[in-house]
Design goal:
heterodimer; A: mainly alpha; Na+/H+ antiporter like fold; about 80% helix; B: alpha+beta; Creatine Kinase, Chain A, domain 2; 7-stranded antiparallel β-sheet; 13 strands
Amino acid sequence: MDELTFLPRWPLVANQMIWVGILLAGGIAGGELVQRALRLPRITGYAAAGLALGPGGLALIGQPLLDELTVFADLALGLVLFELGQRLDLAWLRRSPSLALMGAAEALAAGVLVFLVLGYYFDQAPLVAAVAGAIAMSTSPAVLIRVAADLRAEGQVTERALILTAINGVIAFLALAVLIPWLHLEYRGGWLTMLTHPLYLIAGSLVLAAAAAQATLKLAHLVGKHAGRQFIVVIAAIVLTVGAAVALKLSVLLALLAMGAMVRNADRARDLIVVDFGDAGQLFYVILFVITGARLDLGLVASAGAAGLAFVVVRFVGKAAGVLALAPLAGLRLRQAGLLGLALTPMSGLAVVLVHQTATLYPEIRGAVASVVLAAVVILELVGPIATQLALQGAGEAAAGRG
Amino acid sequence: MLEFKRSEPLTLGVELELQLVNTRDYNLTRGASDLLAAVGKRKHPGEIKPEITESMIELCTSICGGYAQVRTELEAMRQVVGDAAAKLNLGVAGGGTHPFQKWSERRIYDTPRFRRVSELYGYLAKQFTVFGQHIHIGVRAGDEAVRLTHGLARYVPHFIALSASSPFSLGADTEFDSSRLNVVNAFPLAGFMPFVRDWEEFEIYFGEMRVFGIVESMKDFYWDIRPKPEYGTIEIRVCDTPLTVARAAELAAYAQALAATLRDDLAWSPYPSLYQVYSYNRFQACRFGFGATVVDPLTREHVPLGDEIVATLTRCLPRAERLGGAEAVAALLKAATARANDARALRELLEKRGSLADVVRGACEAWTAT
């Protein structure tokens, strides 16, 4: 038998590549099936495929492997956040301050309502309720960007949903940055940490973003206005910034979002053309949703389903109320405002990442926060994309034919 | 049967089709219905209307006495539209074509007429996402309308060269100064009015076309210049929408002065050879702008179009002065002497800034600048 050593040993030793391939193929197939059979957004299918293959389903992909794949998900999320940051058009907010106000209102209303309901009706510790509330402020940028792109949606509801998502992402981050030191105080003590940790997170992430944005623009200027080459410039900047943020224990969320916004707003000469991530970008979205799906735990719906459902409902009420309250000031028709509130429903990978980050730092509150928020994410993974799709179609902003 | 409504002679009306773009990559965007809703009840002269696609709106002045009123009204509408667009984060720009839009992505504004047009013409309707300026000139009677339509046909290349602002299409330099008119050519009823002598002959022609079942109303003719009996005007439709309101008003003033000169030149009468050279001259103007060489149908000479325009503008100047449009004609004379039209300005923008998105951004800036 010695002569046959060139043959692989049995059972096969699977490597990362094989699993990433399976996830991608499974995801894209799942997306297509869900779209054709149920007329649901494809991304619901990506997540469903992840769930089916992951520990909560067939368990083809175990937890250790999932942890190894985190780097892919982080990268994909970095890309999403960068794209979202580019939507944070400060000039528009200056011209239309009511829009910024609307972002603050819907985020705060959703956060406070979730905090109150979890605290009073579900007996969560104030800090647990507060962290959950902070996470509830955010909308999933990946779902919004992807659904809008799939529907080729254009118009005021689409544009405003995207910029509101950018705003509520920033507010959610700031809320967590303020709450985290309070956790510190409660669980470990130390005034110094309470003051310096948020400062380090915020200032550090912004400085990193500024440096990366400057470098990106310089490099973009160097390569000229060529879509293919600038695409690589942007990918390089994203990968580098995600890596640096992780290494420096800064916030990936804030750093990438800020870098996107700075590149967009500081580029007076418009050296960076708008890079369309196109088909290559879609690859990252599939990875992101499949991995998010694989991380979902259906068991949570059984154990924390009631709290999760309450979370989903009051969060929606808060967001809708915030948007509707400011609609007249922002010059939105009531119907458009209602649909805009509906479009902000999704919660997905970003919320999962926020939960994991908080939980890594403070294992003490892991169980409580994770179960409520992740139960809500399970529900919203199904409901969220549909809500956004209905909203954009209802507003008449989706292209007739599906691309 | 086709009654020609008399109107105040030499009054002016201008229609301008404008592009709506997003401010991120400056592609055309779906914005007309939101923008019109935002303009809503704000007071302004004239009318602000939807057009066949969601990426286009139209500004229409009221019936104006002359250049000054046209310009004031257009400026007022520009202000109202600009304010609304700023709040919606939309860009507004002139220019005869969008430099890189794909027509397949356009959406038809939802009205029965636009839907019918879209069903009849197929992709032509979407390709027709081009942006033009129409100038109406008031005339006293149908016979005068027919005579002036022929008379102005001779000057169609002037209006093309002076307004040309569509050098780019589908992401490339077309090498035309006005590529927009090539799109218009595809329609079966495009071109010029047949050689009829007076309104009676025109009515006979129109009646026959209706009996054939080819047309229902004057709207179905896509001619470069057409009589508009229900308004009592003739309508010049060859201009690209210029990059600025000022240029749009100046073109109207030139049309007015030319029409006045032709109307009062009793020695002149229409002749058929006008249309033997018509399509050739029109093509030359579209392709080369001021640099075109046109054929004079009477002398059979080949003339540099730029020189001819300068000469004609100079000749019109006194007449324009009496009509209150001297400033406008002088501005056109300056531009024609320098051979500077918007097509050249757009090409220079590309040269300087490097991408077609930058060109559209520049067009938005030009539109807003006072």
